[in-house]
Amino acid sequence: MSLPEIVQSTLDGESVAARVGLGGDDLLLVTPTRTLVYRAEGLLSDEAVEEYPHDAEYVGVSEGRRKAKVTLDYGLDGERTFSVPAKKLDKVLHPVLAGVFNARGLTDPGETVKQTFRFSELTIVITSARLVRHIGSAVWDEEYEEYHYDDVTDLDFEEGSVATSVVISVGGRQERFKTPNDQARALREGLVSAVCAYHGVDDLDELRAKTAQEADETDESETAETGEESRETVSFGDGPDPLDTSGVDGDVEAGGEDGNGEPVAAETRERGAERAAEGDAGFGDSGFQSAGVVDDAVAEELAELRKLVEAQNERLERQERTIQQLIDELRQGR
Fold first, then answer.
1. If we measure between CA atoms, which residue out of 56, 136, 105 comes closest to residue 70?
2. Which of the four CATH numbers 1.10.10.10, 2.30.29.30, 3.30.420.140, 3.40.50.150 does domain 1-105 have?
3. What pTM does this model have?
4. What mean pLDDT do residues 71-81 have?
C-alpha cells in the first residue's frame, strides 16, 4: 500500500520499520530514528504529519476508556505527546519502544525487539538477545534492568493461582518477576523461544546440558591455568642451586672444607676411626666395650666436623633467605 505524498516527503528516503493503522486513513510509522503520526484530512483538520524522535529518556502512557496517550520525554528539550485509540496502544507501543531502544543504544545492530508485555507497573521487553525489565509508572526510562542471554543458564516458571513466577538463572543468581496467568503462556513461549534460539538449542533441557558442559570446561581450564601458575611460581630460573642436606658426609669423605674454607683430609677421619677401634680392642675378652678413646687427633677431627656442619648450616640459611626473597618479589609482580 502506497503512502500519502506528505508522508513520503517527510520520510525523505528513510525506511519504515513498522506501520500501524490508527483507524480510518490515520497511520503510525516507525523508522530507525523517529515515529511519524499521519493524520488524514478531516472535517475539522487538514492532512498533517507529526514527528517524534526516538532519542527519548522516558516513555510513558496514560489510558482512557477510548483514547490512550504516549509521552516521550527529551529531558531539557521537554516532552511530546500523541494520542492513539486505546485498543491500538499495545500495537503502537511495541515498535515505538523498539525504536527508542535502538536510538539509545540499548539494543545492538541486528538485534530485534520481539515482544512487549505490560503488567500494571511492570514492563517486560523480550528481544533476540536480552530481556529488559522496568518497574515503575513509566513504561521505560533509564532506570531499567536487563539480562543478556549470554548469562542466562536456565529458566523456570512457577504457576500460582493468580500469577506465574518467572525465574531466570543469570550470572550465578536467580531473578524473579510475576506475570498474570492469562498472559503467562505467551510470555513463557516467547522468552523460551528467544533464549533457546540465541544459544542454538531446541529446548530448556538442551540449554541446561549445554551450560553445564560449558561450566565444566571453564572449571577445567581454570584448574589447568592455576596449576601452570603454581609451577611458574616455584621456578626460580637461574637462581642459586639448592643444597643437598646429605652433602656433609659426602664432603667429608672426599676431603671437604672446614669452616674457614680449608680442605679437610680424608686420612684424618680414617686415622681417628682406627685409633678408636684400637682402644676398643684393648679391653680384650673382658666383655666390656670402650666408650671411645678420645685423643688429640680425634678431638681435632670432631672440631673440624663441627666447623663444617656449622658452615653448611649457614649456607642453608642463606639459601632459605634467598628463596624467600624471590617468592616475595614474584608475589609483587617483579
1. 56
2. 2.30.29.30
3. 0.64
4. 96
